[in-house]
């Protein structure tokens, strides 16, 4: 499954690893004919619409998913933080790794980040649930933009594939 992030820098398409990160990416059967998951359910409910990339560090990562824009907010569909889903084979070993942001073990909510480079020190600390598969030029452009209170980078998520 893939999702397209529509940013002011261009579109970024990400592949989601729903098969190995079910709670982050795919579970919660709730009396409907399809399965919801935290990330896709938040996308479907337009939770991320108008969010900003509130943290952007060259050669490290760009972070979003907090509707307050402060980096301190966010919710999950699970009624609170949910547990990490570490897969030892998944590593922060390439540009474009998609991971949940957290404030410590088992504190995932709605914030996530995309890496700009290898970040092996993040392995088994942040749940990897996808990777960029298209829109590398937009990711390159994002990396050059300084984020501050006067200039924000907005985005919306759409086009589930």
Automatic annotation (TrEMBL):
Gene3D superfamilies: Cyclophilin-like. It comes from the Eukaryota. One of its GO terms (cellular component) is catalytic step 2 spliceosome. It catalyses: [protein]-peptidylproline (omega=180) = [protein]-peptidylproline (omega=0). PROSITE patterns: CSA_PPIASE_1, CSA_PPIASE_2. Its EC number is 5.2.1.8. One of its GO terms (biological process) is protein folding. SUPFAM superfamilies: Cyclophilin-like. Residues 6-161 form the PPIase cyclophilin-type domain. Keywords: Isomerase, Rotamase. PPIases accelerate the folding of proteins. It catalyzes the cis-trans isomerization of proline imidic peptide bonds in oligopeptides. This is Peptidyl-prolyl cis-trans isomerase. It comes from Heterorhabditis bacteriophora (Entomopathogenic nematode worm).
């Amino acid at each position: 499954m893939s999702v397209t992030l529509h940013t002011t820098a261009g579109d970024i398409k990400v592949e989601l690893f729903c098969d190995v990160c079910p709670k982050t990416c795919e579970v919660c059967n709730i009396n409907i004919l399809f399965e919801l998951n935290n990330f896709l359910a938040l996308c479907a409910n337009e939770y991320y619409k108008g969010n900003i990339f509130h943290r952007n560090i060259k050669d490290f990562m760009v972070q979003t998913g907090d509707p307050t824009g402060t980096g301190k907010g966010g919710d999950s569909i699970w009624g609170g933080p949910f547990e990490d889903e570490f897969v030892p084979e998944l590593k922060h070993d390439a540009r474009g790794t998609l991971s949940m942001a957290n404030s410590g073990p088992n504190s995932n909510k709605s914030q996530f980040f995309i890496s700009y480079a290898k970040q092996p020190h993040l392995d088994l600390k942040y749940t990897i649930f996808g990777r960029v598969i298209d829109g590398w030029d937009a990711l390159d452009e994002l990396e050059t933009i300084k984020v501050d209170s006067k200039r924000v980078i907005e985005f919306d998520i759409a086009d589930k594939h």
